[in-house]
Amino acid sequence: MNIQHQRELRGKIYDISSLGARFISNKPYTKDSEVYVGLLLPNCNSLINVNAKVVRCEQKENNEFHIALEFKEDNYQQSLIAEYIRVMKLWDEKWGRDNK
C-alpha cells in the first residue's frame, strides 16, 4: 500500500458530511493515501484540520480530479462539521433557493 502520510489536500469541496467529503482538485491523489484537510467552517472561530484517507480518485474532463475522502474518527471535529451541516440545512429550509 502506497501511503503518503499527512499530505496536505488542495481543492474545492463540493460535498461534505461528518464522515467524509468529495472535492475537485487539479492533481490526483493516490487511493489509501493519508491526508489532512484544513476546513474553515463559518461556525468555527478558526481553521480545523481533519485527518482523512483517500477512498477514490477519478479523472474528469479538463484534467480535473474528483476525490472522495473518509475522515478519520475525531469526535470533536466531526461534531463541528455536523453542526455546520445542520445549520446550513436549516438555512436552506428557511431562505434557500427553493423557497423564493
Task: Please characterize this protein's 3D structure.
Helix content is 21%, strand content 38%. It is of the alpha+beta class and 100 residues long. It has a single domain (7-95), classed as predicted glycosyltransferase like domains (Thrombin, subunit H, Beta Barrel), CATH 2.40.10.220. Strands 1-4-5-6-3-2 form a 6-stranded mixed beta sheet, with helices on one face.
Layout: helices, strands, pairs:
Elements: E1 7-8, E2 12-16, E3 20-25, E4 34-39, E5 48-59, E6 65-71, H1 75-95
Number of domains: 1
Number of helices: 1
Report the structural category: alpha+beta
Helix content: 10-25%
Radius of gyration: 15 Å
Which architecture does the CATH hierarchy give at level 2? Beta Barrel
Average pLDDT over all residues: 81
- CATH fold-level topology: Thrombin, subunit H
Low-confidence stretches: 1-6
Instruction: State the total count of DSSP E strands.
Output: 6
CATH superfamily: predicted glycosyltransferase like domains
Major sheet characteristics? 6 strands, mixed
Strand content: 35-45%
- Output the helix-strand order: EEEEEEH
What is this entry, summarized?
With 100 residues, the chain is of the alpha+beta class. It has one helix at 75-95, and strands at 7-8, 12-16, 20-25, 34-39, 48-59, 65-71.
Q: Which descriptors would you attach to this protein?
A:
alpha+beta, Thrombin, subunit H, 100 residues, disordered N terminus
